[in-house]
Amino acid sequence: MRPQTNQQTRDALHQLRRDHELIRKLLREHERLCQGPGCCPAVKADVVERLCDALCLCAQMEEEIFYPTLRQVLDGEVLARTTLCDHGRLRQLIARLDEMEPGDPGYDGAVDDIADCVLPSMDDAQAVLFVELRLAGLNAVALGEQMAQRRRTQLRQDFTRVGLPAGDAPEAVGGWPAACRLVQM
User: Fold this and answer.
1) Which domain, by its residues, includes 131?
2) pLDDT band of 156, cuts 50, 70, 90
3) How many domains does the chain have?
């Protein structure tokens, strides 16, 4: 694999592709763990936690920076032919996982539901939206610099998912389950 150039790492579409690759890798890892005999619940929990972290951060970049720009650059016809991730549904699925343990019935099904939610939109984004944005002349480097700055700020703010104490109601932070702990700017 060739190392990415500085230009590529600053490009918004390359950043999102990298996010998508990480999400796919973690989904495959979870699937592998589910198929293997005697999976350690702590290992599965770690993979799912990293998956939810990656999903939360990617979704935040999309909502705050990418989607608003996308709507300005592309016309409604292109958007109507593509699937944007339903972040509301994703929030619900992550919240459902936050209330479960790896051995609980439905835990693996909730991860599968997350895959069903995000994989089609990631496929559409890369096959249609990214191409259309390049053709429309999107300044992907300038957009990528905004995303990278926001990402750095978010990661410095101790972007972690933390378990909720028993009996505490999840509080929404910017519409995301409290366990995402996305700091509002």
Assistant:
1) 6-180
2) confident
3) 1
